[in-house]
Amino acid sequence: MVLMSVFMGCICSVVHQVLKMNALQKLIEPLLRTVVKEEVELALTKHLAVIKRQCGNSQIHPSASCLQLQFTNRLSLPIFTGTRIEGDNSINIALVDALTGQVVMSGPESLMKVEIVVLEGDFEGGDEENWTYEEFENNIVKEREGKPPLLSGDVFLNLNEGTGAFGELMFMDNSSWTRSRKFRLGARVGSGYYTGMRVREAKTKPFIVKDHRGELYKKHHPPSLDDEVWRLEKIGKDGAFHKRLCSENIKTVKDFLILLNIDSSRLRNILGSGMSAKMWEVVIDHARTCSPDNLMHFYGANPDRKSGVFFNTVGQVMGMLSEEHYIPDDELSKTQKADALMLVKSAFDHWVDVVPCVNTSIAGVSPHFSSNLCSSASPLVENFERNFSSYHKSDGFGLPNSITSPSYFSPTIFTGDSRFDLAQDFLNQDFYGSKYNNTSFETDSEN
């Protein structure tokens, strides 16, 4: 009985130990699985990092890495149907290694054929733009039924050392009928040309393609002085704003800028309440991108011309002459600026008393030169006025005698006329101490 009792005690002890081991296994097993999983993932991460470093050091062939096409410059906008698609320079496509960012300049990949296609404007390709081949293909836009192909011209281009340039390529239909109202251009490897690993396609930013008829009405950036006023943003050709401006004889960008500079409140009233404050800001910002010519004018506050205002072609104050001392516009006080503006307004009403100058003569001008230029006793001004007066009387050229209506916005000022060019040359020569300083200003009669 004693032996039996000892034996049973041993059995119970063994069973108890087994049960404890089983419970411990259930506790430890999940922990072991987690540790093993983390170690495996860490090993894989390190392995991939080694592969990337090898790719960066060009220790493996580019075909074993990720290749992708890229547009290397932006398209010039707006784009019209029937007009060649152009870029900042020529539009180029490049084949690059996505890991290094370098153009693939050697190997069969660097000579592949690329096809240009049209994509939906809302094709994004995910947060990292890592689209699949199928997603790219599904977003290719085909022509409308009964319409010609969307792209006409050189839709294929051949890479040379990893790069290629667009040829003659144009849209044949606008983008207004698509779901996003916009297109993108895409580039993909020509079908069946390259059988290696996938080369990721390229795409441009979305843009609108307008009908070519709209090109006749497109805005100019920047506008020129001689552009019709409807070339400015927010002013449509033959629209309400255009008609209001024309009724006040404001027909060109130059006319618009002159009134903007000398009486902006009147210009605002002409356009009326139909033009919102935001539209007003847009149109004047666009107008101010126009570059005036080099012609300058001086209008004296007094007959002796010891004081007066300098202004450019569009009536912008450039400086003042105060008691024979020249003050640039950025050094004028508020009171002086107000006085200068009043003089400019008076100048357009008394244009016969305005003396043309040359912009380069005024830039950096010294007070001594200003007084010589504008003094009524200066031989230069006497000769200049006498000869301009004789030309005006002899053949009708010159500035109008009286400018009291909006027609003053486009005065004739000998622009492009050889006599006016000679007068400008006379002014410039005087600045450098020319032989003309004390001689009369004369030209051959046939000029």
Automatic annotation (TrEMBL):
Residues 67-212 form the Calmodulin binding protein-like N-terminal domain. InterPro entries: Calmod_bind_C, Calmod_bind_M, Calmodulin_bind_N, CBP60. One of its GO terms (molecular function) is DNA-binding transcription factor activity. It is found in: Nucleus. It comes from the Eukaryota. Residues 1-17 form the signal peptide. Keywords: Activator, DNA-binding, Nucleus, Signal, Transcription, Transcription regulation. Coiled coil: none annotated. Its main location: nucleus. Residues 303-355 form the Calmodulin binding protein C-terminal domain. Residues 225-290 form the Calmodulin binding protein central domain. GO terms for cellular component: nucleus. GO terms for biological process: regulation of salicylic acid biosynthetic process. Belongs to the plant ACBP60 protein family. This is Calmodulin-binding protein. It comes from Acorus calamus (Sweet flag).
